[in-house]
Write a structure and sequence with these properties.
Blueprint lengths: L12 H8 L23 H5 L13 H21 L2 H8 L9 H13 L2 H23 L10 H5 L2 H7 L1 H10 L8 H6 L10 H25 L25 H13 L8 H12 L3 H23 L18 H4 L12 H4 L3 H13 L6 H6 L10 H17 L12 H8 L7 H16 L23 H17 L13 H5 L2 H8 L10 H36 L5 H41 L4 H21 L7 H21 L3 H5 L1
Helix pairs in contact: 3-11, 5-6, 5-11, 6-11, 8-9, 12-13, 13-14, 14-19, 21-24, 21-25, 21-26, 22-26, 22-28, 24-26, 25-26, 25-27, 26-28, 27-28
InterPro entries: DUF4209, ERMARD
Protein name: EMARD protein
Organism: Hylia prasina
Length: 665
């Protein structure tokens, strides 16, 4: 698809005027001493006097306020340029401690000294994310939670109580309000090029942050309060994020050439791309990702607006409209219910969308953009593993919109192969598969559990010869035989259907079945929610059995079990014989139903409410099992009866062909 190469700005005319011109209309020189005391403290009253208000409703008049504050910002910028780093640290470093990331603000001061446009933009993005996080911590001094959106946070009563409403109105002129400069959003969403962000606004926000620290110190002294910082989000299971191979210098060198050739890159944004790759090579992984994410967004927005024939949506929206952001670009339909054409123009639509959903949107994924932009991640310890995936993905997108020959380059081809094979890791369906495999691994540990030799276990009245257990196992065999039609061929032995079918190998094979997770219908997601709850309960049962069996064996050997406990332990050992195949049968059913659910929804509507009722009855059984097998209850006789009733129900449901796998065939 041909992309326009004539785009010179992504700021609409009114927004461009507000950011690039409005604050420069007043050219008079402003005396820094008006807003700065002799000991370096901010004279807030003098600052707030520059905020203007509408006569109609006394709300902030953003246009007049920006115009009035323009010379003040310039004065602050020149003042900071006049300071040495040592002077700045002595005068201001302590006022940034409340942010819990003083070094970020000291770096911003360094950037202001030489005013490299790309670095100023990066500094502003880091400053605003850290400031937002810190303001949220302050909000929690007076509330149990804080708003997720910056604009709501700045408008909160709690911050007005601590800092004063007039002070918060000053901040809203610069960030948080779509009527003001809105610097955070235009940068984090990729609308502003490096040259379009005046350095003096970065300097002013640095100045205001120090002033907030001064006000907060006074407030905490008066109230005897203590500011507590919320812990940073820590990425765990980094191996789950591993989609692309390591990026060596040769790949990065090719990437540096690609950004100059790919039609995915808007020319005025090129400095951001080069800076991102440079940051990665210099092991500044947070900086690299902070720079890249907005560029991926603006590049995809270009594709989105071109493919959907809505070129006006490439520009920043006005305060009365919404930005075209990742959420909308990744949606199945547009606002007018027409099909979104963006996935169509991507050569691997599922791959690109799945990757972006995984890393940015899915609740159980890393949600990198949200967490970075809201200050939830420690920038100093941002993991290379995460940055590598974002950079690797970006390179594959650059390739898709470059000369065909580059895709076959010996260095690039492994990246492209990984991209084409990508499967979602954090969609609810993918998480269910992971749960099932983790649960079956746990159950397969049961044969290794320490157990009293059979000859030492006395018979219990009513269970001689394990009659009840044998009956349940026969019922399981019958159900397994009924399910053979829906399983891979040659996986069942008539001599031993349980151990030949209810295996980890079969579940791995079934879970490896590729299921389209993109745009899953609501009925599918509702079914998956219940299936995940069932799987989680089964896993808990397994963990309780493992813990309980180990404890009871130790107590048996040490002869510390009372008579009743010994009888209960023998009931447990008897129950384990049928519980293992029962749980494996449930996991098999979950997997078969999961494989079937998409095809059923595509083929024909079905009464999924009735089906959910059936699933919830299985969930109820699993929840009861958790209770009965807990160390507090140990109700093994009740477990036998409960399992018998459930197997009868399963057999009847199978006979009536009400399960999804029947509808799918």
């Amino acid at each position: 698809m041909a992309l326009p190469d004539s785009v010179t700005t992504c700021l609409s005319q009114p927004v461009h005027y507000v950011i690039c011109k409005l604050g420069f209309e007043k050219t008079d020189t402003y005396d820094i001493n008006n807003i700065l005391s002799g000991n370096g403290e901010v004279r807030w009253q003098a600052v707030t006097e520059h905020v203007c208000y509408l006569e109609s409703d006394q709300s902030v008049d953003y246009i007049k306020s920006i115009r009035s504050l323009g010379p003040v910002c310039e004065s602050v910028n020149l003042y900071f340029k006049s300071l040495t780093k040592e002077q700045f640290v002595i005068q201001y470093a302590s006022w940034f401690h409340w942010t819990n990331c003083t070094e970020v603000f000291l770096e911003v001061f360094d950037v202001l000294q030489y005013t490299q446009a790309t670095d100023v933009a990066l500094g502003l993005m880091k400053l605003t994310s850290c400031l937002e996080r810190s303001l949220g911590d302050v909000c929690l001094l007076k509330a149990n939670d804080c708003p997720f959106l910056l604009r709501d946070l700045l408008a909160s009563e709690q911050l007005a109580d601590v800092f004063g409403q007039a002070v918060m109105n000053v901040l809203r002129v610069f960030i948080g309000s779509p009527h003001g400069l809105n610097l955070r959003n235009v940068l984090w969403h990729g609308f502003a090029s490096p040259q379009e962000i005046p350095a003096k606004y970065c300097a002013m926000l640095l100045f205001l942050t120090a002033g907030l620290g001064q006000l907060l110190q006074t407030y905490l002294m008066q109230t005897k309060g203590v500011l507590v910082h919320r812990p940073y989000v820590i990425f765990i299971s980094l191996e789950e994020l591993d989609a692309f191979p390591d990026l060596n210098n040769e790949i990065l060198s090719i990437a540096e050439e690609l950004v100059k050739l790919s039609s995915f890159v808007l020319k005025m944004m090129l400095p951001f791309w080069i800076a991102a790759l440079t940051a990665f090579k210099e092991s500044r992984y947070a900086d690299s990702v902070i720079l890249l994410l907005p560029q991926l967004e603006v590049g995809l927005r270009l594709l989105f607006t071109t493919s959907n024939k809505c070129p006006n949506r490439l520009l920043t929206a006005e305060s009365s409209a919404l930005y075209t952001t990742f959420d909308e670009m990744l949606a199945k339909h547009l606002d007018n219910e027409e099909v979104n054409q963006l996935p169509v123009v991507l050569e691997e639509p599922a791959m690109a969308s799945d990757f972006l959903w995984d890393f940015l949107n899915h609740q159980e994924g890393p949600r990198i953009r949200d967490r970075l932009s809201h200050g939830e991640i420690n920038l100093e310890t941002f993991p290379k593993e995460v940055a590598s995936q974002i950079v690797g993905f970006a390179i594959t997108i650059l390739c898709r919109f470059s000369d065909e020959d580059i895709k076959e380059h010996v260095v690039i081809k492994p990246l492209m192969n990984c991209a084409s094979c990508y499967r979602s890791r954090f969609h609810p369906i993918s998480r269910l598969k992971k749960q099932v495999l983790e649960c079956v691994k746990s159950i397969h540990l049961w044969p290794e559990l320490p157990a009293v030799p059979e000859e030492q276990v006395q018979k219990i009245k009513g269970l001689e010869g394990n009659a009840e257990a044998d009956t349940l196992i026969l019922m399981i065999c019958e159900i397994v035989s009924q399910l053979q039609h829906y399983m891979p061929q040659n996986c069942c032995s008539s001599d031993d259907p349980i151990n030949s079918v209810l295996t980890e190998r079969l579940l791995v094979e079934l879970c490896d079945t590729r299921i389209c997770t993109l745009y899953s219908p609501r009925p599918v997601l509702e079914v998956v929610v219940v299936l995940r709850r069932i799987s989680a309960q089964c896993h808990q049962v397994s963990q309780q059995v493992i813990a309980g069996a180990g404890l009871r064996y130790t107590q048996w050997v040490n002869k510390t079990l009372r008579s009743r406990q010994r009888h209960n332990y023998r009931r447990m050992l008897n129950s384990i014989k049928f519980l293992s195949p029962v749980l494996r049968l449930i996991l098999l059913l979950i997997t078969l139903e999961l494989v079937s659910v998409h095809s059923v929804c595509k083929k024909n509507p079905f009464d999924y409410q009735q089906y959910l009722k059936f699933l919830k009855s299985i969930l109820q059984y699993a929840e009861n099992l958790v209770t009965y097998t807990s160390p507090e209850k140990n109700k093994w006789d009740e477990t036998v009866e409960l399992t018998k009733k459930t197997l009868i129900k399963l057999r009847k449901m199978n006979d009536r062909k009400l399960m999804l796998m029947h509808l799918a065939t």
